[in-house]
Amino acid sequence: MRNPRHLLLVLLVATICGQNFVSGQSMTGSSQQSPNLTYHSAVSEVRLVFFATDEHNHLVQELQKDDFAVVDNESVIRDFRSFSRADLFKLDVVVLLDSSESVLPHFEEEIADVQKLISHSRWGSEDKVSVLSLSGLEARLVCSEDCRSSFTVDRIASLPRGGATPLFDALEVATEILMRRRQPDVWPLIILFSDGDDTISKASLQDISGKILEVGAQIYAVDLSNPRRPSNGTAMLQRITENSGGRCIRTSEGAARVFDDVIDDLHSARAVTYVPSQSGSKFHSVRIFPTHNLGWQFRCRSSYYYRSNTAHQEDSP
To answer: Which of 7, 147, 204, 292 is most exposed, with minimal Cβ within 10 Å?
Structure first.
């Protein structure tokens, strides 16, 4: 029996209110047709992945397609070409481990949380897990794809610690890793352990925002800053995660909560496809609003790039 965590939407293209666009073509066929025959649609469409919760922050189980409307570049869209729930998928996860000077007082706890996340989470046999350490002048690859077995005590002991915080540079490296391995049946995720402060990066927030948008990764952040002292770093983490359709949680909630949130998303995710209005703009902002129950809230990516010369715009699972 398949792992129940492996539920995700099989239909997705474009970006959501969570950033990856992969060109594709729609295919149709039937069991009676020759396996060598494939029909291609000439209609460009966007697929949008999203999550719905009620006024008590519980997942909406019985969501119908007339319960919401998409606002795409200020055009209200209610006529969807398809509306679906989740299906099987694989994960490609990059864990970013902040080991800079500002988080050293919490570093041992951070390491323990990352170890729990990697060793105790319900991974699938084909899931990939990589770890990057960020401190000093650059991000360093600790292990790639096989971290469930290679993120050992010796590896942890050899991690550099202290120094500046190249947060944006590390996010840029993470997106480049995910971009090289991008596949239509894989959901790219970045799980970031940090206080959100960047002190030395060459890359800017604008640079990494564009790359996150392109690769379509959702970001789940564990905020390591002092919860009694609101900081610019906390605001930065919230901004990055919300724009990607992910979440930001406090370190006190632990690594297990991060992956629980990911699993909840996989079980509750929906996808719609639609034809956007011809605005002439490649960059589209996107939002979802309830049409009946105004207490419902919808979480998705905030924007995407639409390429009309392809048959589909894919939001990565």
So the answer is: 292
